[in-house]
Design goal:
Blueprint lengths: L3 E6 L1 H22 L5 H4 L9 E5 L5 E5 L1 E7 L41 H17 L15 H10 L17 E8 L8 H10 L3 H13 L6 E7 L4 H15 L5 E6 L11 H19 L4 E5 L20 H16 L16 E2 L4 H9 L9 E5 L7 H7 L4 E2 L14 E7 L2 E2 L3 E2 L2 H13 L7 E7 L3 E2 L36 E2 L1 E7 L4 H16 L6 H6 L4 H18 L10
Parallel strand pairs: 1-4, 1-6, 4-5, 6-7, 7-8, 12-15
Antiparallel strand pairs: 2-3, 9-15, 10-11, 10-18, 12-18, 13-14, 16-17
Helix pairs in contact: 1-9, 5-7, 8-13, 8-15, 11-12, 13-15
Length: 572
C-alpha cells in the first residue's frame, strides 16, 4: 500500500474536502450494503490509501481520513475540533502564566446541530443501542427525520463545511488558527496570511499534526493539498508548505489550488484591484515553488460555464460550487488508489493505475517540464455510444479561465480518467469498451496529444445524501443524459440522482499560457517596473525588491518553458 496524506487549508478548501470525504464515505458504505449495486461492491479501490485504522481508549476500532484541516477559529460550526470518536478533554489555555488576579470565563452557547447532523447522531445512537442489546432504544425519540427535510435544510442553510460532513475525523485532523475568527471581514491577501501564521507561532503545532499521519505511513506516495488561494490562506499555505519541503524533500506534493466563484467579484476601486492582481501573482509564484504539480481551479462564473451545462449551480453558494470541484478531485485521484493487478493480470473493474509520483513525472517531468496543468471535467460524462463518441472529448471542459481554446500543441501530455461510463441503452461500459471509445474519439479528433494515459474504472461517482441540488432536469437517476427533460423539476440532488459517470483530464499544454502571462504581466506592471504603484504594498507584505524580482523570474520561467525564445528572463 502507498499512502496519501491530505491537507485542506482555508474555508473554501475545507468545503471541497468535506464533499470529497463524503464521496469516500459513501463508497465505504455502499461496499458493505447488501442491496447496493455490484459495481460499488467490486470497485477495486484501496481505501487504505486515504484512510487510517485506529483504536479509541475504549478499544473501539476507528477508520478515519489521513487528513489535516487548517481553518479559521470558529469555522467548525457545531462540531468539536477533537472530533466525536475519541472524546478527549480539551486542555485549558495556559498561555498567560504571570497573571495573579481573578480570572473569569465567558463561554458562548454551542451552535445547534442542523437536521442532517441530528440524523447522524440518531443513527449512531441506534447502532450503539443495538450493539448493547438495548430494546426500545427509540421509543422515546422524536419523529424520524426524513431525507427530504434534510436535503431542503442543507439547500437553504449551510454556513460551515461541517454542516454537511458525514465523516468522523481524528483529533489530530482539525486545526483552528487561534486569533483568526470565521467572521473576519478582511483576510484577503497573501501578506495578511503570512503575518497571521508567523505572528501566532502556528507552524510547530500544525507540523506536529502532519507528522503524526506521515510517520505512521509504511510507504507514503505523496501529499495532496487543497488550498483556498483567494486570500490570506495562500500565505498560510506557503508557510506550511515550506516546512513540508524542508522535512519531507522526497515526498511529492500535488497542489489543488481552488478559488470560490464569489472571490472573483469585481474589486472596488483601483487600490483594491492592484492588491488583487498582486495577490494572484505572488500567491501562484510562491505556492508553485513548493509543490511538484499545481492544478488551479476556479471559474469566475461556474454557473455560466460550459462545464455546468447539465448542472444548476448558484455561484454565491460555496456548498454548490465546491461539490463540482470535489467531484473532479475524486475523479482525477482515483488512479492513485486503484488496486494494482499483476503484470499479466487484467482487472475487470479498473485499468491504468498510477501513483502520484508517476503522474507528476508524466505531466511535469522530462517529457514536458511544465508543472501547471489544466483540469477538464465532464459531469456527468456522456454515453460512449457510437453516436456520442465524436463529441465525447468536446464535453471535457476546463475549470479555469484565461486559457486558449483549440490550441495546436504537438507536445501536449495528458492523463485521463473515466469511471462509471455507460454505453448504448445506458448499460455499464466495460473497461475495454471505454478504451475503444476513447481511441475512436481521438481518431476522429483534429489534434491529439503527444502522449496520453488512460485510467478507467467501472465504479461511478456515488451521490451521498448531503449533496446539493445541482443536477439539471436532463440528468437521470444514474447520471445518464436524457433526450427530454424531466417535467416539474429544475434542479435535483441525491434523492433523484444516485450516481453519475464522470470523466476528467489533466493536461500539460501551451493552452495555459494566457493564464500564466496574465499573472506575470500584472506582477511586472504593478510590482516590478520603475514607479510601480503596488511596490509599497508588496513591501508591507514583507517582500523586498529582490524577492519580488525572484517571483517574477519564477513566473517568467514557467512561460518560457511553454513558449521558448519569446520571453526574456529579465524583469524589464
Amino acid at each position: 500500500m502507498r499512502e496519501i496524506v491530505t491537507i485542506q487549508i482555508g474555508n473554501y478548501a475545507n468545503f471541497i474536502g468535506s464533499h470529497f470525504w463524503n464521496f469516500q464515505d459513501e463508497l465505504l458504505g455502499l461496499a458493505e450494503t447488501p442491496e447496493s449495486d455490484q459495481v460499488f461492491k467490486n470497485h477495486s479501490l484501496d481505501m487504505d490509501v486515504l484512510y487510517r485504522t485506529g483504536e479509541t481508549q475504549q478499544g473501539l476500532l476507528t477508520y478515519t481520513p489521513r487528513m489535516v484541516s487548517v481553518n479559521f477559529q470558529g469555522s467548525l460550526g457545531s462540531v468539536s475540533s477533537r472530533g466525536s470518536l475519541y472524546n478527549q478533554i480539551q486542555a485549558k489555555n495556559m498561555d498567560v502564566m504571570t497573571w495573579k488576579g481573578r480570572v473569569t470565563t465567558h463561554a458562548s452557547e454551542p451552535l445547534r446541530r442542523n437536521l442532517f447532523l441530528q440524523s447522524l447522531s440518531e443513527e449512531e445512537q441506534e447502532i450503539v443501542g443495538k450493539a448493547n442489546d438495548l430494546d426500545n432504544v427509540n421509543n422515546n425519540s422524536p419523529a424520524e427525520i426524513q431525507d427530504k427535510d434534510i436535503v431542503e435544510c442543507l439547500e437553504s442553510d449551510v454556513q460551515y463545511w461541517t454542516d454537511f460532513s458525514k465523516v468522523h475525523y481524528h483529533p489530530q485532523s482539525l486545526y483552528e488558527l487561534s486569533g483568526l475568527w470565521a467572521d473576519i471581514q478582511e483576510f484577503d491577501n497573501y501578506g495578511l496570511g503570512k503575518e497571521a501564521f508567523c505572528g501566532h507561532q502556528h507552524g510547530e503545532e500544525i507540523d506536529d499534526r502532519l507528522r503524526f499521519f506521515v510517520e505512521e505511513c509504511d510507504h507514503i506516495q505523496g501529499i495532496q493539498c487543497i488550498v483556498d488561494d483567494a486570500g490570506g490562506f495562500s500565505g498560510v499555505s506557503a508557510m506550511f508548505l515550506e516546512s513540508i519541503a524542508d522535512e519531507y524533500p522526497n515526498v511529492p506534493v500535488l497542489l489543488y489550488n481552488a478559488r470560490n466563484p464569489s472571490s472573483h467579484m469585481d474589486s472596488k476601486g483601483r487600490k483594491q484591484a492592484i492588491s488583487h492582481y498582486l495577490h494572484d501573482a505572488v500567491s501562484f509564484s510562491r505556492l508553485s515553488e513548493l509543490c511538484k504539480l499545481i492544478i488551479p481551479v476556479g471559474l469566475p462564473s461556474l454557473s455560466g460555464s460550459r462545464a455546468s451545462q447539465f448542472l444548476c449551480i448558484k455561484d454565491e453558494k460555496p456548498y454548490h460550487s465546491s461539490a463540482v470541484y470535489a467531484a473532479a478531485m475524486h475523479s482525477f485521484t482515483l488512479p492513485f488508489r486503484m488496486k494494482q493487478s499483476g503484470p499479466s493480470a487484467e482487472s475487470l473493474y479498473t485499468s491504468g493505475a498510477l501513483d502520484m509520483y508517476g503522474t507528476v513525472q508524466m505531466l511535469a517531468g522530462q517529457m514536458r517540464q511544465n508543472m501547471v496543468t489544466i483540469l477538464d471535467v465532464a459531469i456527468p460524462a456522456p454515453s460512449l455510444s457510437d453516436r456520442a463518441q465524436q463529441s465525447f472529448l468536446g464535453n471535457l471542459q476546463p475549470l479555469i479561465s484565461d486559457i486558449s481554446e483549440d490550441v495546436e500543441d504537438f507536445h501536449a501530455v495528458e492523463t485521463m480518467n473515466i469511471h462509471g461510463a455507460v454505453t448504448s441503452g445506458n448499460q455499464r461500459a466495460s473497461i475495454n469498451e471505454v478504451k475503444d471509445a476513447v481511441e475512436s474519439a481521438y481518431d476522429n479528433s483534429v489534434t491529439r496529444p503527444k502522449f496520453s494515459h488512460l485510467s478507467a474504472s467501472t465504479c461511478p461517482l456515488p451521490i451521498p445524501l448531503p449533496f446539493p441540488l445541482i443536477f439539471g432536469n436532463m440528468v437521470g437517476q444514474h447520471g445518464e443524459l436524457l433526450e427530454t427533460p424531466i417535467s416539474g423539476s429544475s434542479s435535483m440532488g441525491s434523492l433523484e440522482v444516485h450516481s453519475i459517470p464522470m470523466a476528467t483530464r489533466l493536461r500539460s499544454s501551451t493552452a495555459v499560457l494566457p493564464f500564466l502571462e496574465r499573472k506575470l504581466g500584472n506582477l511586472r506592471r504593478f510590482g516590478i517596473e520603475r514607479g510601480a504603484l503596488g511596490a509599497p504594498l508588496l513591501q508591507s507584505w514583507g517582500f523586498g525588491k529582490d524577492e519580488v524580482e525572484d517571483m517574477g523570474e519564477v513566473l517568467s520561467k514557467m512561460v518560457t518553458t511553454l513558449k521558448p525564445y519569446q520571453y526574456s528572463s529579465d524583469s524589464d
